[in-house]
Amino acid sequence: xxxxxxxxxxxxxxxxxxxxxxxxxxxxxxxxxxxxxxxxxxxxxxxxxxxxxxxxxxxxxxxxxxxxxxxxxxxxxxxxxxxxxxxxxxxxxxxxxxxxxxxxxxxxxxxxxxxxxxxxxxxxxxxxxxxxxxxxxxxxxxxxxxxxxxxxxxxxxxxxxxxxxxxxxxxxxxxxxxxxxxxxxxxxxxxxxxxxxxxxxxxxxxxxxxxxxxxxxxxxxxxxxxxxxxxxxxxxxxxxxxxxxxxxxxxxxxxxxxxxxxxxxxxxxx
Length: 270
Known about the structure:
alpha/beta
């Protein structure tokens, strides 16, 4: 079954970390021509601007520890002077802030996440994307809906991948990530080449530093407390919500696709 790339503007793939979202992302990418678009990839793209620039100073100098916030963008620009080209300065500052929070192990505030998401979303003309893991909070959900409505684009559906916490923990511990291109693998369900190399670019895959049982349990609780209310909010605003089983009895891409299509037909999405 083939579809036009214009079948959907944007699809949201939601679910707990490790629930089985990636296989659904793969279907929308291969069958509908949509592009994966996750906050992790976005943060890395903005941080790359910082890392590839001529800047070699200390990011911490821009953060006011007493106020627990960054100095103003105007002050940052003043400190940088002509060190950073004007054409990238705004994105550079966003990347600088993201790198500060992530490298120090802090939660990236909604305000910054939304700014970075909005800037990157605009670069894609607000359509043709699979939003993977965004929004995560009510504030982000409200921002996304206003952004879509204000720019003439649609959020066609929320695909909520559901799974049991025990299964998620077992599955996630076996997950491997390509540090170069971002491809996701699993030692049992989608093995990398020879057990350790990315099948797309050949880079040796790694285990994410936060894929531990303790950190997973924290993320699972955070999803229930913060992300489910955001999903319910969007569904309450008329975005179709499709719940799919992340733990199918037999797991192949064809079975995943068949199960997904069945649910989409029931909601008259296809």
